[in-house]
Amino acid sequence: MGDRGARQRGSVLMLVPAGVLVLFVLGALAVDVAIAFLARRELSSTAAALANDAATMALAEDRFYAENAAGAVEVDEGQAADVVREALAARAPSGVSDLRWSVRSADDQVCVTLTARVDYLFSRAVPGAADSATVSGRAVATAVKGGSPVRRSGVDC
Fold first, then answer.
1. Which residues contact 11 (CB under 8 A, 6 or more apart)?
2. Residue 69 phi/psi, 5° resolution?
3. C-alpha dihedral sign at 60, 84, 52, 103
4. Element (H, E) at 135
5. CB of 139 within 8 A of CB of 51?
6. Per DSSP, which regions of 48-131 are E strands?
7. How many CB atoms lie within 10 A of CB 114?
8. Which one-letter DSSP state was computed for residue 123?
9. How large is the average pLDDT for residues 2-12?
10. Whole-angstrom distance, CA of residue 136 vs CA of residue 115
11. Cβ-contact 86, 97 below 8 angstroms
12. Closest to 156 measured CA to CA, from 62, 77, 78
């Protein structure tokens, strides 16, 4: 072993722990990002289910059965909000907190927006790092009469 080998002896003992530490930090970061991503996916899925429920169950019956607008498909925003409130009470998304929701409707469309806070698992251990993130999900559903082509009114979410 030459002079060069003697100088490098023991350097791997310092590099391996540093490399393992970097791997743990990157793994923890990946877990926290995955938690936020999954929460956003769950909110989007829940918003889609709520929008479909609201478009189905919140039809304005007075407009549908009115003589001058018989068969008009229109979503009642108040009824849609009641449907969303009851559905969220029955099946709130898991793993999130501070859940807020809003419902907007225009003609035959209803838009449901969910916003919540998700707590990170590992970032709380890092001083100065964010310990939570705000995620949201949004979906629009259209009430269709008898499967006929839909007129897009473009609800503003």
1. none
2. -135, 45
3. positive
4. strand 132-142
5. yes
6. 97-106, 109-119
7. 26
8. G
9. 70
10. 4
11. no
12. 77
CA distance linking residue 133 with residue 120, whole number of Å: 7
Tokens representing 108 are 């035959």
pLDDT tens sequence across 80-99? 999 999 999 998 888 899 99
- 95: phi > 0 → left, psi -120 to 50 → alpha, else beta; which? left
The token pair at 9 is 């002896």
Structure-token pair, residue 80: 């849609």
**Local structure of residue 144 (DSSP, 8 states):** -
How far CA 128 is from CA of 6, 23, 54, 61, 116, in Å, comes to 42, 20, 42, 54, 22
Dist. CA 65–CA 77, nearest whole Å: 18
Reference 105, options 137, 45, 46, 59; nearest CA is 59
Q: Cα Rg for the chain, rounded, in angstroms?
A: 26
Tens digit of each residue's pLDDT (9 = 90 or more) over 35-76: 999 999 999 999 999 999 999 888 877 777 776 766 678 888
Q: Are 65 and 81 within 8 A, CB to CB?
A: no
Tokens at residue 84, please?
Answer: 């969303």
- Contact between 141 and 126 under an 8 Å Cβ cutoff? The reply is no
The partner residues of 134 in beta bridges, in order of sequence, read 117
